[in-house]
Write a structure and sequence with these properties.
By secondary structure, the protein is α+β, with helices and mostly antiparallel strands. The protein contains two helices and six strands.
């Protein structure tokens, strides 16, 4: 899943995928470690309670997460480090964080921060409460994604 546009994300309300999803490089394949119920940023000491499952992409699962002190609700993109074993996979994750950190646009989900523990990388994002119908990056059926339309919808012309 791309943190920027939700590429490849299953819709909210979808059942959470099982832990033994078979072979492959996707999320279910490396679900050996269970995602903790309380996520702690070791740098800031902020704690988040993992809540409702929102969806999944190729490498990540997304949940509502609530910052325990302020009770502010975010989206948490959680990537198992077991899926980031090859250098290009780590680079892709770093690049996604770097790009998202530098963006500030009303059509792009807001980046709040990231942290990691020994098993997972946690990306904290703005939570979009309403699902927008007809957003050009949301996949429906077998239609392939349409990047030019996505960029047009993102650009302020």
């Amino acid at each position: 899943m791309s943190a920027v546009a939700g590429k490849g994300v299953k819709p909210a309300g979808a059942a959470e995928p099982g832990k033994a999803a078979g072979a492959g490089a996707g999320v279910g394949a490396a679900a050996a470690k269970e995602i903790p119920k309380v996520l702690v940023d070791p740098r800031t000491r902020r704690s988040y309670m993992r809540g409702r499952f929102l969806g999944k992409g190729g490498f990540a699962k997304c949940y509502e997460i609530t910052e325990l002190e302020s009770q502010e609700v975010f989206a948490g993109k959680i990537v198992p480090k077991s899926l980031l074993v090859k250098p290009h996979q780590k680079e892709k994750m770093s690049m996604e964080i770097s790009i998202h950190r530098s963006l500030a646009h009303r059509h792009v989900v807001g980046f709040q921060g990231f942290f990691e523990d020994s098993d997972f990388v946690f990306v904290v994002l703005e939570l979009c409460r309403r699902r927008v119908r007809g957003v050009p990056g949301q996949r429906r059926g077998r239609d392939p994604p349409k990047p030019p339309h996505l960029m047009y919808g993102t650009a302020d012309i």
